[in-house]
Design brief:
Elements lengths: L1 H15 L12 H15 L3 H6 L3 H7 L2 H11 L1 H4 L3 E10 L2 E9 L5 E11 L2 E9 L8
Antiparallel strand pairs: 1-2, 2-3, 3-4
Length: about 140
């Protein structure tokens, strides 16, 4: 009987806890806007515009919008042509900001990615994207 009361009390306690919503997670509309704008540029095959949302380090690594676009098409096809995009949590780790994004590709497969964001003199830039392993655990 005591066990049943304990279980009922725990159920009531859990029920009374506030539900976690997307609003509970850190949100930065400027970061979301940059990622969305880059993906819109990819959808339009406007690699010059997409390249402009990359950080100076990424632009230096690839050199030209064409090489950048080739890397995206080959290595990140779900980003090049996503069927669905959903922003999840924004987190800070070791002084870096990571925006988690769920992307559903054209085949229906779901991919979890994290965008590393850096603030420059002209606003937020994308400093890298990593594909998270199944389960979405990030470092």
């Amino acid at each position: 009987m005591q066990r049943l009361i304990l279980i009922a009390a725990m159920a009531v306690a859990v029920w009374c806890l506030p539900a976690r919503t997307d609003a509970d997670e850190a949100v930065n509309p400027d970061i979301r806007a940059v990622i969305s704008a880059q993906i819109d540029a990819f959808r339009a095959d406007d690699f010059g515009r997409a390249f402009g949302y990359a950080s100076p380090a990424i632009r230096g690594l690839f050199g030209t919008p064409e090489r950048f676009g080739l890397m995206v098409r080959r290595g990140y096809p779900m980003v090049h042509r996503p069927a669905e995009l959903r922003f999840l949590g924004l987190r800070e780790a070791n002084g870096r900001l990571w925006q988690r994004v769920m992307i559903r590709d054209q085949t229906g497969a779901v991919h979890m990615l994290e965008y590393q964001m850096v603030r420059g003199h002209s606003g937020w830039k994308i400093n890298g994207v990593r594909i998270l392993p199944p389960g979405g655990a990030g470092a």
